[in-house]
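#lab-general

N.A. 3:47 PM
ok so I finally got the sequence cleaned up, no stray characters, all 145 residues accounted for. can someone with queue access submit it? mine expired

B.Y. 3:52 PM
send it over

N.A. 3:53 PM
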Amino acid sequence: MADLKLARDFPVSAETLFAWISEGTRLLQWWGPEGVEVPEHDLDFSRLGPWYSVMVNGEGQRFKVSGHVTHVDPPNSVGFTWGWHDDQDQRGAESHVTLAVEPTGTGARLILDHRDLGDDDVSANHESGWTSSLRKLEARLANPV
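B.Y. 4:20 PM
back already:
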């Protein structure tokens, strides 16, 4: 099974960064790769339980993903399961994501750990998607509204 680990430093406190990775209204501002919208969702990683999101790209293609929030440890980490849905809304293979926050001398570091992705192609696709999403988060935290 392939795993993916990404880290990014942000010039904000660990508490602020944790809010951006756990609260639904903030998650929506960076969730999904650049160029997608999230018209349907139940994104809230501040509590245990189910979540889902439907991402729609510029060509109108819909991509549904869902899972369960498995742990919430403010301001340190959140964990959740992840499974893509097919065109018949059947959920596929499950993987696991942990978003961990560590204080640094200049702010906070986000460590994204996505495990059990299957093969290297699946991992590469997730790396591209998460990298794009993290660019959106970087932009939001550089210019918070």
